[in-house]
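call fold target=Acyltransferase 3 domain-containing protein
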Amino acid sequence: MSSPIRLDHLTGIRSLLALWIVCGHYLPHEKPTSFLAASTCRSFMAVDVFVVMSGFVTHWAYGDRLQKGELRIRQFYVRRMAGIVLTTYIAMVLSLIVVIMVPEFRNSFMPSALTLLGCFSFLAHWVKPSAWCPAPPSWTIEVLIPSWLLYPFTRRLVDGVDSRAGTPGLVLLIAALHALSFGPLLLLFLLQGFKLTWVQYATDFFWPPSQLADFAIGVVAAALAQKSAIPDNCREEGHREAEETGALHGYSWQGLLADLSFFGTAAVVIWMPPPANRAECETNESALLTHGLALPIAAWLALSVHGGLVARILSHQALVALGNYSSEVYLFKWPLVALFHHVFQQWPLPLDVFMAFLLLLWLLSGVYVEFLAPPLVRHLRASLELFIDWLQVHATKSEGWVAGSCRGRRRAICSCRCHRGSVS
């Protein structure tokens, strides 16, 4: 079984995205009148990159194996979700402990028992998109879980379009998905005189169904990338080279287009007119960025498998090493910054304290990933596999019992009918 081509640059960019989010939330900031400050306050864009990239990586890593039957759907679910859900629960428990222990937070953030139930069952944002849960970034995992659960069916849809219409069909599909994702928000923006409220932004961003199309865009982008990544006549050689280098570099024009997509997306975020204040960072035209840039993001993901300047830089081992801890940095940032706020009694944190927080956050995330997570995830996956096997065995026994019972009832009915016939 051949393994998928390793794409180190996608791990490398995760480190920058996590840094962007942390700085956007907690870095001491001025009014977003400068272009750099405006881009920092629009750090929510990094989450949209994560969503599209999750669809891309999921299809890149699992699509072919699911299609060939080398991986069962239940194995996909366990491998894709067990580790990140466990980490999310740990972050939520740590956040809840901090909230309970600090009176200031307990009075401000303590959710109701019903909200807690919704948070731990990943349903809170289905009911109220702006709900506050322990470890607030857990909303991202909540919106991705439906996409992961639906992925086997999404893959079949994408494969069906590819088999019937090829590349043009996939291009039309990705355009339709973007219209479905971005169209309603754009229409609302136009109808309201180029205005969008924060509530509308939150509904279009935090509500789980709102991210299904962006995830699917990433899936289609991965399908397009796989069709062009390695020519059929040099698949083995290209695959071997890709495993050694982490990306393909044979098609310079595609790498150039990837770089143009990357820099074009960054330019829109940086050079879009800055909002008047921090409260407007997620309203009006800035709110359009939640889905508006999904296509250029997908284009960069699909084209960057061929290399390019940006892919080469992001493949640097320093960025890749930091990117391995990005999910944990994202999930653990709230309980740690809450502790820093409680200890230093300042908000926002002074710059030197913020730097200490940032370094400690990455260090603790690295310790968790390298030493704590592997045995925990390994035991969780094994337990889930055993539990699923147990359910299947008992389901089979139940089906056999029901079938046997039905056959027995049929024989009894037939015997009764025959007896009545003989008497008459």
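return ok
Residues 8-375 form one domain. The CA atoms of residues 34 and 123 lie 38 Å apart.
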